[in-house]
Amino acid sequence: MYPASAVVRGHTMSQARNPRNRQDRDRAESALAGRSAVVTGGSRGLGLLLAERLVDLGCDVTVAARDREELAEAGGRLSGRHPTARVRTQVCDVTDREAVRDLVRSAAEAHGGLDVVIANAGIIQVAPVEAIGADEFRAAVDTMFMGSVHTALESLPYLRRSAGGGRLALIGSVGGLVTPPHLVPYACAKSAVAALAEGLRAEEEQVSVTAVHPGLMRTGSHLAAEFGGDRGAEFAWFSALAGTPVLSMDAERAARRIVRAVARRRTRLVLTPAARAADLAHGVAPALTVRATALAARVLPSGGPDTPHPEPAQGRDVEPAVAHPVLRRLRAWGSALNDRAADAFNERRRHA
């Protein structure tokens, strides 16, 4: 008798080799050709790769982000790869609903409608709760949750007019399904995004809504993340885990999986085996999962009253200050692939 895991693996491998499954995927993705798409948070990292994948499939793409210079680099990269593609860039802060309204309206006017919207804008704050305050929670909620709310509410009227029904994707996180220590504001905002996606999917009849919950991905985002508390130690552990191949996922592969799920109108996508395992464990044994995360918190940098709590700083500013040899070795151990991803996916530019 074969173990259940072997049966699941065999079934998954047979699906991957099944020409019909591959043809179905290709057909779903080819249906995006000529469609109009908007990607928020699209100037770097995962957002840039999502925009790039949509351009590869023949979409007319509007890329939005807050940083004008970073956005110009992203637009040049996309146009350079596909000189005949219709690529637009627009500065937009998703915390401002009027700015999102203008983004959606101008994209629809420029491309004759709107068919696909991916709400990806986000921030990452890494610190123990003792080292942060209400402002960090507010910033996370304003950017990731209210940014998704603004994007969804402004785009849905256009998506409902899309031929065959539009597609909306909200990028959440496994952190919104299982709260990791030292990422509490991020997890709170992402859990609200998960609830929003499920609620919209239940009520929408014309537009498919896909909730995407990635685990760790090698996007180079450790350089743009904000670190508080013992900033060097926080940066070291986060960048190491985010770049470890067994725990993290190649970002280009993740982008392909996400766009395929949107094309196929999937309800929910959880990426990486570790993220799926955490999601399953929390659903089956939530109390045990919380105990496990509490144990993980014990080995993370201390955030007690004796720890100095300087102002949070971006990873690109913290990196040169990581002087302790143990921390430098920890960072070097897991972050080489993530550092290369930062160079490849426009994460090196300094933000204003």
Automatic annotation (TrEMBL):
<dbReference type="InterPro" id="IPR002347">
    <property type="entry name" value="SDR_fam"/>
</dbReference>
<dbReference type="InterPro" id="IPR057326">
    <property type="entry name" value="KR_dom"/>
</dbReference>
<protein>
    <submittedName>
        <fullName>Putative short chain dehydrogenase</fullName>
    </submittedName>
</protein>
<keyword id="KW-0560">Oxidoreductase</keyword>
<dbReference type="GO" id="GO:0016491">
    <property type="term" value="F:oxidoreductase activity"/>
</dbReference>
<dbReference type="InterPro" id="IPR036291">
    <property type="entry name" value="NAD(P)-bd_dom_sf"/>
</dbReference>
<feature type="domain" description="Ketoreductase">
    <location>
        <begin position="35"/>
        <end position="220"/>
    </location>
</feature>
<feature type="region of interest" description="Disordered">
    <location>
        <begin position="299"/>
        <end position="319"/>
    </location>
</feature>
<dbReference type="GO" id="GO:0016020">
    <property type="term" value="C:membrane"/>
</dbReference>
<comment type="similarity">
    <text>Belongs to the short-chain dehydrogenases/reductases (SDR) family.</text>
</comment>
<feature type="region of interest" description="Disordered">
    <location>
        <begin position="1"/>
        <end position="24"/>
    </location>
</feature>
<dbReference type="Pfam" id="PF00106">
    <property type="entry name" value="adh_short"/>
</dbReference>
<dbReference type="InterPro" id="IPR020904">
    <property type="entry name" value="Sc_DH/Rdtase_CS"/>
</dbReference>
